[in-house]
Amino acid sequence: MIVLGIETSCDETSVAIYDEDKGLLINKIYSQIKLHAKYGGVVPELAARDHIKKLLPLINEALIETNLTKDAIDGIAYTAGPGMLGCLLIGASVAKALAFAWNKTALAINHMEGHLLSPIIENNEIKLPFIALLVSGGHTQLIEVKALGDYHLLGETLDDAVGEAFDKVGKLLGLEYPAGATISKLAKNGDPTKIDLPRPMLKHPGLDFSFSGLKTAVLHYVTKKQNILTDTEKADLLASFQQAVIETLVAKSKKALKQTNFKTLVVAGGVSANLELRKQLGEMTQKLGAQVFFADLQLCTDNAGMIAFAGFLRLKAEQDANLSILVKSKWPVTDLAKIN
Ligand code: KG4
Ligand code: ZN
Q: CA-to-CA distance for 325 and 233, rounded, in angstroms?
C-alpha cells in the first residue's frame, strides 16, 4: 500500500510518499520562513497563497523523483486540522480533487496525530501503551496512548504552547521567527543556572503546563537591563530560559509515567528537535527504568511524511475518511477514532 501525504497547515508546504514495504520514500518540505520573516510571525493569507503556488509542483516532483505514477498511489492523506483555515483548505482541496480525478481514497488527517505517530515511522520497537509528550508551536500536551487513535488527555498548557514561548522570547531578543532552533544554539554558550527564572506549575498538582509567566519573567529581566544585553548576558538568559522549560517538561513527563506506570515516553512536535531536551528526558527515563523515543530530526517539525504515515495506518485499518469532512482550525486528537 502506498499513500501520498500533503501538509499545508501552517508555513510549510510538504508532500511525502509512504510505502508500506519500503517506508518513507520521499518527504519534500518547502519552508515559507523567508516569506514571513519580516512580519515576525506567519501571515495566514500570504501562507495560503504560497501553498497554492508550491503544492502541485511539489506533488509532481515527488512522483517523478520516486519513479511512481498516480496508479501506484492507494490513498491521499491531507492535514484537515488543526491549523490555519485558509492554509488547510488548499491542501484539502488539492487532495480531494486529485482523489476524485484519480479515483483514490482521500484521508483527512489530524496534524497532531501526525506528530504523535512520527517517532514510529522509522522505529518499530515502540510498543503500546505509551505516554506522548506533544510539544509544538501550537500545542503542549501529555497524552495517554493505550491504542493507536485512542488518545486520552492527561494535561496541557493553560496559556502559551512551549514552541510559542520559545518564539516570543526570541522576539523579545530580536531573533527571527521561529526562534526555537536559534535559541537552542545560543543557549549552548550560556550558563543555565545564571538567571533565576520561575518553573511554572511545577509544584502544582496535575499535569497541566503554563509558559506565559516564564515569558513575562524574561521580559522583566530584559526591561531591567533597558534592552541592552551583552552577548554573554543574552546566552545566559536563553540558557536559563531553556532550562526552566526543560525542567518543567521533564518533571511533568516523569509524573505522567509514574501515574500511569507506563514505561515508554514518545516525544514529538517541533520542540522535540531540541537536543538539550532530548538529553534531559533521556536521563530522567533511564533513572526511572523507562525508555524515551523521538522522531528523526527532519520529522520533528511540520512535514507531510507524518501525514502520509498516519493516513497509511488509517487506510490500512479501512478507515477511509468521509469525503465531505471539513477542515477544522481546532480539532483535539482526543476526538479521533481508534485505529483498529
Ligand atoms: O511542530 P512544528 O513544526 O509546528 C507546529 O505544529 O506548531 O513546531 C514549530 C515550533 C516553533 O515554535 C519552533 O520555534 C519550535 O517548534 N522549535 C524548537 C526547536 N526547533 C523548532 N524549539 C526549541 N528547540 C528547537 N531546537
Ligand atoms: Zn506541527
A: 50
Burial class of 52 by CB neighbour count within 10 A (0 to 12, 13 to 18, 19+): middle
315 grid coordinates: 487506510
Task: Summarize pLDDT for 194-212 with one digit per residue, the tens.
Answer: 999 999 888 888 999 999 9
Query: How far does residue 180's CA lie from ligand 1's centre (Å)?
Result: 6
Task: Provide the pLDDT for residue 319.
Answer: 66
- Candidate of 11, 116, 136 to mutate for ligand 1, largest count of ligand atoms within 8 Å of Cβ: 136
Helix (H) or strand (E) holding 319: none
Q: Which residue has the cell 497524552?
A: 143
Positive or negative: CA dihedral 313, 317, 320, 321: negative
Distance (Å, whole) CA 124 – CA 31: 29
Phi, psi of 112 (to 5 degrees): -75, -30
136 lines ligand 1 (CB under 6 A): yes
Whether residue 318 is predicted with pLDDT greater than 90 in this model: the reply is: no
SS3 label, residue 9: coil
What the block records as the C-alpha cell of 13 is: 508546504
- Distance from C-alpha of 19 to C-alpha of 22, rounded to nearest angstrom: 5
Please give the Cα distance from 121 to 49 (Å, whole number): 30
User: What CA–CA distance (Å, rounded) separates 29 from 303?
Assistant: 6
